[in-house]
Amino acid sequence: MRATSPVVGVFDSGVGGLSVLRALRAQLPAAHLHYVADQAHVPYGRRRRDEIVAYARGIARFLRQRGVHLIVVACNTATAAAIDVLRAEFAPLPFVGIEPAVKPAARLTRRGVVGVLATQATFRLPRYASLVQRFAPHVQVLEDPCPGLVERIEAGEVDGPQVRAILRRAVQPMLQAGADTFVLGCTHYPFVAPVLRALVGPDAHILDPAPAVARQAARVLASLGWGVGNRSARAGEVHFYTTGDPARLAAAVTRLLQWPTPPAVTGLRWQADELHPTPIVAAAVSSRVGG
């Protein structure tokens, strides 16, 4: 018997993909979501492409075993490194990826200068270069990998002196060069958008691609015959998994998504490129409610 609501898998190297999960919950409130944080390997931005592809394959296999109808790659680096491989190997299971919002940024900029904040791995992969060549050949694109920022956000710091220092060092040269549009090219970075806003001023554009990813996921599910427009339906369940510390991810969900109670988080372990649940489950409470 066909399920009444679609099941969607979501993964990232850590907590950054929670910004995408937040958008998916708003766009697809009845969908059941399975979120995997590969915190044993965070950040992916420091990893080789072959490593990222291996992690993405293992996570995709795990999510397929959970019966998902769609997988959202909620990580710019993993999308750039692995999504073509995943689509080829796991067909017909559909994948929706995320990429820096260079195309809309090139349309929005008034001065012709765009700043992109992403990981070093995203910048060095051909998919990003192609994005800039196709959609922003007439625009000056300034780039900064914001070293250390992912680690600060993973540690729970979204508005501290180190976060402010990292962002200030990144965007001040961009502002001096005339940048008026800024792209959040890592899913962790929307959580520090208020700090960035204070630095770039009220008139600058700050682009978070997560809502567009959620809309694309809804379109793909609709094409598969899922009725996803009924917002009066019962809220879908959310299941959280991590290859790191379950209690740490539960705390991050509560803090970053402003959930009223910590969700249940199942621990996972890597074994020969496969994911297996561990006996460790943190904060074992209902995860049907929340942000």
Strand content: 15-25%
CATH class of the largest domain: Alpha Beta
The description of the largest β-sheet is: 7 strands, mixed
Strands, count? 11
Tell me about this structure.
The strands form two sheets. Strands 4-3-1-2-9-10-11 form a seven-stranded mixed sheet, sandwiched between helices. The chain has a four-stranded parallel sheet with strand order 6-5-7-8, with helices on both faces. It contains eleven helices and eleven strands. The chain has two domains: 7-98 and 211-282, Rossmann fold (3-Layer(aba) Sandwich); 102-208, Rossmann fold, CATH 3.40.50. The longest helix is centred in the N-terminal third of the chain and has 17 residues, at 49-65. Helix content is 41%, strand content 19%. With 291 residues, it is an alpha/beta fold. Helix 2 (49-65) packs across helix 3 (76-89) and helix 8 packs across helix 9 (193-200). It has helices spanning 18-27, 49-65, 76-89, 102-108, 120-124, 126-135, 149-154, 161-176, 193-200, 210-223, 246-256; strands at residues 7-12, 32-37, 70-73, 95-96, 113-117, 140-144, 181-184, 205-207, 238-242, 265-271, 274-282.
List the helices and strands and how they pair.
Layout: E1 7-12, H1 18-27, E2 32-37, H2 49-65, E3 70-73, H3 76-89, E4 95-96, H4 102-108, E5 113-117, H5 120-124, H6 126-135, E6 140-144, H7 149-154, H8 161-176, E7 181-184, H9 193-200, E8 205-207, H10 210-223, E9 238-242, H11 246-256, E10 265-271, E11 274-282
Parallel strand pairs: 1-2, 1-3, 2-9, 3-4, 5-6, 5-7, 7-8, 9-10
Antiparallel strand pairs: 10-11
Helix pairs in contact: 1-10, 2-3, 8-9
